[in-house]
């Protein structure tokens, strides 16, 4: 298996803390704090805005609430897979599965100018990072990492196949949960492929061989892992040796 650099932001130090409900205050240190989905910062404290399990990536000090919601709500720093629906002179519009379409400026690519900008078409698949998420504004995405000014795998996704799944499963893939990492590694021993997961419930898979039958097989295996945890996912991994 191969994957484009930084398409999946790996952080192994995830901690599951407690079940939280909307309105619950979250007692956490506010220094260098990064909030993900389900949390909002007020003048006095951090407040939970949706029900789920409070989780923490200690390495990057990111806090978020995980649940099984299907509708994507944009959050800053989220990687997403979008579909170009509008092509203008200054920006593109992308369907990212949220209530509002996202804006992708034509210059929001690594080392690009108006003359060298990518020529995206309606229907093109784009892998991007959310840089602006506000309930009163359209979300904005860029095809490079604003922290490094490098593409790091973001940009147009050519060929391949997209499957839809729960937002929770996408986060498990992006964070490289142990069982999921083992599943992808085992699958990579059978086929050479690239994979990109968006926090908006979309996963892109592209086999080097571009064989449709094998692509469907890989998609089905990855989908089967969505509702499996613990020993069940390792049973799925073992079953791949028998197929």
UniProtKB/TrEMBL annotation:
Belongs to the RRP40 family. Residues 33-71 form the Exosome complex exonuclease Rrp40 N-terminal domain. The keyword rRNA processing applies. One of its GO terms (molecular function) is RNA binding. Pfam families: KH_6, Rrp40_N, RRP40_S1. The lineage of its organism: Eukaryota, Fungi, Fungi incertae sedis, Mucoromycota, Glomeromycotina. This is Ribosomal RNA-processing protein 40. The keyword rRNA processing applies. Residues 160-210 form the K Homology domain. Keywords: Cytoplasm, Exosome, Nucleus, RNA-binding, rRNA processing. It comes from Rhizophagus irregularis (strain DAOM 197198w) (Glomus intraradices). SUPFAM superfamilies: Eukaryotic type KH-domain (KH-domain type I), Nucleic acid-binding proteins, Ribosomal L27 protein-like. It comes from the Eukaryota.
């Amino acid at each position: 298996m191969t994957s484009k650099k930084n398409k999946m932001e790996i952080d192994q130090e995830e901690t599951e803390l407690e079940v939280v409900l909307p309105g619950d205050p979250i007692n956490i240190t506010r220094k260098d704090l990064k909030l993900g989905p389900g949390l909002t910062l007020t003048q006095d404290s951090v407040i939970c805005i949706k029900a789920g399990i409070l989780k923490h990536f200690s390495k990057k000090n990111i806090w978020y609430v995980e649940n099984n919601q299907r509708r994507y709500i944009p959050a800053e720093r989220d990687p997403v897979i979008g579909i170009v629906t509008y092509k203008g002179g200054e920006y593109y519009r992308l369907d990212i599965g949220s209530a509002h379409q996202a804006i992708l400026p034509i210059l929001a690519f690594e080392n690009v100018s108006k003359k060298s900008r990518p020529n995206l078409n309606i229907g093109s698949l784009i892998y991007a990072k959310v840089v602006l998420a506000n309930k009163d504004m359209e979300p904005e995405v860029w095809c490079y990492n604003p922290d490094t000014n490098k593409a790091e795998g973001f940009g147009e996704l050519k060929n391949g196949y997209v499957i839809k799944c729960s937002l929770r499963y996408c986060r498990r893939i992006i964070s490289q949960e142990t069982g999921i990492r083992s599943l992808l590694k085992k699958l990579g021993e059978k086929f050479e492929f690239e994979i990109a997961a968006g926090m908006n419930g979309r996963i892109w898979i592209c086999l080097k061989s571009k064989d449709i039958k094998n692509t469907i097989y890989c998609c089905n295996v990855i989908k089967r892992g969505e509702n499996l945890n613990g020993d069940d996912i390792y049973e799925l991994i073992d079953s791949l040796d028998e197929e």
